[in-house]
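Database export, one record per block. Field names are fixed; values are copied verbatim from the stored entry.
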Amino acid sequence: METILSPATGATIQPAETQQAAPPRQINPLSDPEWERLATAYANASIFHGTEWLRTLADSYGYTPLCLVAGETGAPSALWPIMEVNSRLTGRRGVSLPFTDDCQPLYDDFTSAQRLAQSALELGRSRGWKSLEFRGGRELFPEAPASLAFYGHSVNLTGGEEYLFSRLESSVRRAIRKAEKSGVTVTAEQGTEAMDIFYSLQCRTRRKHGLPPQPRSFFQNIWRHLVSKNLGMIVIARFQNRPIAASVYFRRGGRAIYKYGASDETFQQLRGANLVMWEAIKRLARDGARSLDLGRTSLSNEGLRRFKLGWGATEHKIEYVKYDFHRSTFVTERDEATGWYNVVFRTLPLGLSRLVGAVLYRHWA
């Protein structure tokens, strides 16, 4: 009988005979179509488990996908997407997944998922990783401390448009009506021009928050691998033909994800961002999406938390787990969403800030 060591405690786990399976194996989803078929067979798979998101990360930042599968060929019992980040600044490490708010392992039984977690740690040791960060699968490490914690929010899109509108907080309903009465128009688009519009607004928004923008190539790859294949859309609000707010949404099956949002602060009083979100909710619901994930929110960002709750969202905790191979233990970290660097990036010229983002983001993951 196979012996499994608990990733959290090192204690021995003896799985039942019926749970025995072939050793976990690696799949490169960029060259092997089996990954897409296996991952999308799970009802709880999101766009982040799919090949196109993994390809976006690989093409944008040069990360190497090392996706693990437990179970017999053709009948997997657990899957976990992982990417190797090889950085001169931050070291070689594994992340599941970079620039992904929440990436749960996909599994049919708990023992298979534990086996896969152990294999991931063994993979990290063999490849000389500095650390391995799991941005999902917290239940597999019950005794390990959470390295980082966030709020997560999800909107149930079932019930029809009138019901969805009734669930919004009164302040959100007023903001939507104000935008409409002010002459703000909104469209859902999938062209390259729409992505260019979003990126222009994104650069302004990131500067306001004191952060460099992600590279333009990253959003171009999002368009190429996701939006152009009908796996995403850009919703844009305009006032007198001028773009004032835009957001990027992904969708696979019944699950939709609000990934990026940006706006022109000059027109904030027109509530264009509220109209963008409402248009996305209506459109996604009509197209058959059952839920909209609003992404992670720092525990200290009460303003963003209230904004998301205003859409009738349910709240849950998102917890990451990180293993430090040098120290042979799970570690905790500080949420670095805010710091001294925010002041610096607010003062940088936009062109220089974009250059810094193009250089640094592949190292941050």
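Remark 1: The domain at 4-144 is CATH 3.40.630 (Aminopeptidase).
Remark 2: The chain is about 35% helix and 30% strand.
End of record.
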